[in-house]
Design goal:
Growth Hormone, Chain: A; 73% helix; mainly alpha
């Protein structure tokens, strides 16, 4: 029997029907993403406890206290260290997944940030906490990109949107869990151990358990095929096909031939060749601005509530109620994920973020703040699911991880400085100043995606990149 080509491997994957076999892989990858998001989102929720522990005084920060000259001070150094680590991870190390494979990088980057975050939980100075947060952030950055490209390459085109929406639904379930743990633990010190440290360690322990479940995930057949390992790719696809047929009890439909991906040299410089240049510019603008809106609210929600007059004791309680909404944005998207063009989902959700943030900045009543905060979260997480899906579709398999990593690195860089900007704006103008900042970012996001973004709905990865 002749060895199949890379295009034939892709066609066989894209003809797979919806099945437990395929969706099990999505769920397992999403469990890895669950703890990645846990680690990323606890930033805002442990802030009050870390500040209370005295970690961000000038003496505790040591050499990092000098950052005050560029308006980086206090808890802002922790936010800065987080996003700086993410930036290094996605820019310098995400490309390793194009060389060594999706599976290996996915599993080992998980171990990386689990170990580093656990070490961070036992640090006693702001300097060492920020140092280990930076190192952990590198592993988090690699993990984020690898999950996106892994799902894009495994899932048939007609279900790719729904796969990403379920992936984000599962991963965002981490946010209300963080919020409730922070609400219960951060103000206390169980067994004499600061509550924020318990919150951090809980994520590391859970992620270590999930690591063992992920060992059964196969390598991406598309990646194998593009690296000349066609026989190995054929075996993996054949095993998936066998399980699907056994599960459904009927033969698979014949593969529909698709054109191969456009040839290229396989270097990062391809993102600026004529075919990909417009996409790359659009994704750079998208990543810079979405971070301002998304993390500008999510990572600062307890502090924003305090800025609207909510007592510090109640801010974590209200933040928990808002956090419950996080998984529902991508869950609701499962009903239209593959019916509405991806770019218009991003534009529409960003417009709603602009509207709800503007309203939030004018409110003071707790019930109204919570309601609008929930609506903002629903919109932000719908935008988030759609853009993760979108950017993973826009480049060929040979450079997908490094190209997505390059595009995503702009969000990490933006996150590092946006966190500082939001802290400064809160100080000089309160929540209305933050709302103006987020609103301007959403306008740039909508225009760039609407004007420059290509269509991808129901197209195979090879068709998008042919």
């Amino acid at each position: 029997m002749p060895t199949p080509t890379a295009a034939e491997i892709a066609a066989r994957l894209d003809r797979l029907p919806s099945s437990r076999t395929v969706w099990t892989m999505v769920v397992l990858l999403s469990l890895g993403g669950f703890f990645e998001f846990y680690d990323l989102f606890f930033t805002g929720y442990v802030a009050p406890g870390m500040v209370k522990s005295g970690l961000f005084t000038a003496a505790s920060l040591g050499p990092l206290a000098a950052l005050k000259v560029i308006s980086v001070a206090g808890f802002g150094t922790f936010v800065f260290a987080t996003f700086a680590g993410l930036w290094v991870g996605v820019l310098l190390f995400a490309q390793v997944a194009d060389r060594l494979g999706r599976r290996a990088i996915f599993t080992w980057s998980l171990i990386w940030y689990v170990v580093c975050t656990a070490i961070m939980a036992f640090q006693t100075t702001g300097f060492t906490v920020n140092l280990w947060r930076f190192i952990a952030g590198i592993g988090l950055g690699v993990q984020t990109v690898t999950i996106d490209v892994f799902i894009a390459e495994l899932i048939p085109a007609r279900e790719r949107g729904r796969a990403f929406s379920w992936n984000q639904t599962i991963t965002f379930c981490s946010v209300p869990i963080i919020a409730v743990l922070a609400w219960l633990l951060v103000p206390r010190a169980p067994l004499g151990f600061d509550g924020w440290r318990w919150v951090v360690l809980a994520g590391s322990v859970g992620a270590a358990v999930v690591w063992f479940l992920l060992l059964g995930i196969p390598e991406s057949p598309r990646w194998l095929a593009r690296h000349g390992r066609l026989a190995e790719a054929d075996r993996i696809v054949a095993e998936i096909e066998r399980r699907v047929m056994q599960e459904t009890g009927r033969p698979l439909p014949p593969p529909v031939p698709v054109g191969d991906e456009a040839p290229g040299e396989g270097s990062l410089f391809e993102v600026f060749t004529p075919f990909y240049r417009t996409r790359t510019i659009m994704l750079m603008l998208l990543n810079i601005t979405q971070t301002i809106g998304f993390y500008g609210f999510a990572a600062w929600v307890p502090t924003l509530l305090i800025g609207r007059g909510v007592h510090v004791t109640h801010s974590l309680e209200y933040a928990f109620i808002i956090a419950i909404a996080n998984p529902f944005g991508p869950f609701l998207a499962t009903f239209f994920a593959d019916r509405v063009e991806r770019k218009w989902q991003i534009v529409g959700a960003s417009f709603l973020m602009l509207v709800f943030m503007t309203i939030f900045a004018r409110l003071n009543a707790p019930v109204a703040l919570i309601a609008v905060g929930v609506l903002f979260s629903l919109s932000a997480n719908t935008m988030g699911y759609a853009f993760h899906n979108y950017q993973a579709e826009l480049y060929p398999t040979r450079i997908r991880a490094r190209a997505v990593g390059f595009a995503y690195s702009w969000s990490r860089l933006s996150g590092a400085f946006a966190g500082l900007a939001i802290g400064y704006l809160l100080h000089i103008g309160g929540v209305p100043a933050v709302a103006l900042f987020i609103g301007a970012a959403m306008i740039v996001l909508m225009l760039s995606v609407a004007i420059l973004g290509p269509s991808t709905r129901q197209l195979t990865l090879e068709q998008i990149n042919h």
